[in-house]
Amino acid sequence: MTQTIAPRVRTLVLLLLAAACALLAAAGPASAHAALTGSDPRQGAVVDKAPAQVSLTFSESVSMDDDSLRVLDPKGKRVDDGSPSGTGGTTYSVKLHAGLPDGTYTVTYQVVSADSHPVAGAYTFSVGAPSETSVSVSAQAAGGGFVGGLYGVGRYVSYAAFAVLVGGAAFVLACWPRGSGVRVVQRLVVSGWLALTAATLLLLLLRGSYTGSGKVADVFDLGLLGEVLQTKSGAALVSRLLLLAAAALFIAVLFGAYDKRDDEERRDLTFGLAVGGSVVAVGLAATWAMSEHASVGLQAGLAMPVDVVHLIAVATWLGGLTALLVALYRGPADTPVPTVAVRRFSRLAFGSVVALVATGAYQSWRQLGSWTAFTDTRYGQLLLVKIGLVVVLVGVAYFSRRWTARLADAVPVVAGQRKKEAAVPPGGGKGDKVKASQKSGAAGKNGAGGKNGAGGRTGAAGKGGAGAAERAGAARQAKAGGKASGAGKGSGESQRAAQLARQRAAVDAARQKRQRDADPHRFGLRRSVLAEAGVAVVLLVVTTVLTQTEPGRTEEEAKAAGASSAANAVPATGAVTLDMPFDTGGQNGKGVVRVELDPARVGANDLHLYVERPDGTAFDIPEVKVALTQKAKDIGPLPVAPDHITTGHWSASGVQIPMAGDWEVAVTVRTSDIDQVTLSKNAQIG
Length: 686
Known about the structure:
The protein has helices at 2-26, 145-174, 183-211, 222-229, 232-254, 257-260, 263-289, 300-330, 339-368, 373-376, 378-423, 428-446, 449-452, 457-517, 520-547, 552-567; strands spanning 36-40, 46-47, 53-58, 62-63, 69-72, 85-88, 91-95, 103-113, 118-127, 576-583, 590-598, 603-612, 623-630, 635-640, 643-646, 649-657, 661-670, 676-685. It is of the alpha+beta class.
């Protein structure tokens, strides 16, 4: 049974590891988590005269530097002032030089989204007429290349090491306190700490190049490193290093003072270690939650603690599973994992899975927003793969629980057998026989009457006298030469005794290991746990790729905005059309608001507002409000109360705009009594 099934399990694990490597290799650069939802001028637009500025609108806030937003003329020369700035909401603009000639201009941008991922892209617009040639923009995506690949590996290692560190420590404290003295378990947890520390340092060094040029030489740029430390991601990585210093103290106590205490003192120390370890684990998880997906978007205040619980549940389950696997396969024979520890971990893993499913369901709703996003977006497709892997993992865990139950039923029989073996030491019967034969042989040699009969006593006495004389002489010789050779003989005998003791210990350990591995229930448990660990490796890879993928909600909003922008060109009369996707988070809370301002000039204007579902059908909402603000001149907000005309259509006439310039148009959409959101875009009023 062992020889036929074990290779199959190993083959399965190798295939899973190969799949994990393939997923990492195919992950590519990080997808944009902030999508470009609008621009002015629009992509491909041909305008009569050169604009005063170029504006870009993203789905979430981004960070910029002087080179983040550039405008290039047909010859590749910069024609912007090099100082991009936010103009309100998620819109950013850069001023252009005056008197630009006709031709095709290229707008390039490279920014960092609020959830720490680089976003890059480019598009063109033309003044007067398109030029024959335009600037060629590098095709390398943000976060790509060698640095991007290395950054992705560092992210995966940090997730895996966090799981091993937290889960391994939780397994020792909650399931197997005596495991704190097992060398392989100690090495596993310490390895998790070392790997997480190294990966964090690597990510900190790579961060500047990863979000910027992507050049290897910039990894060692101290000035760039200083800029990284001032960002949210840099602060999170530094905080993680400080928490890892506290984790080092925790590990030292867990595998030091804790292991040396007796059971009563160990129980008292367990509570303190559990509280301290939980605080450190929550802090480490928060360094991810406060700098990535959960920190931006819908319900960020709730999403961050939910993400912390999600990460802790994953680490407790998968990290504890790794510790159990190592203990089952590499643990010493004289300290096997007890059944009670396996049963405790089974209950702990069940609780972790419940927390994982609950928090994962919320995160899925938050990041997708619709059922169609499961199949229409890459994030949704990867999430389906992750859900499938979790289902497989739970299925394998079910078989592990069955093996655990069988192992518990077999404990009384095994314990009785071990008591019998303890009563008769290994090889004890043979040793007794040897000692008895030695004693009888000695008696036969010394009892001369046994050989010579009754008439041989004199001869026996003579032999005995001669033997006594010989022994006396030998004693004198030993006494004379003992001083010279006693030390050498004693040393040699102690070395041989130590060698024999080591050999006996090795033989005894091998025998105990054979007895342990011969248990069919323990062998079945080892196989199922190994299969769980293989699936867990692939699950962690998919999770890492998910964190680098644009959320489905953002991708759908960008598609809707792009479609609306392409379908609605700016009218020749000078009217301005603004499309703003919205999501209030409630039922029927998704759609697109379109604002048309005609003629978009100083004085009276007509304002039309349309509300459509993502599929383009018009629908009504309880309330919609509009406000106009000129921040440069500190004018406004000027409220506008449009009248409801028909389904999905509101209108206001005679909207007075007192002066030209860049105006912010803010729209408040309310879809229920409690669900509302305010959107804003900028419009150039001539």
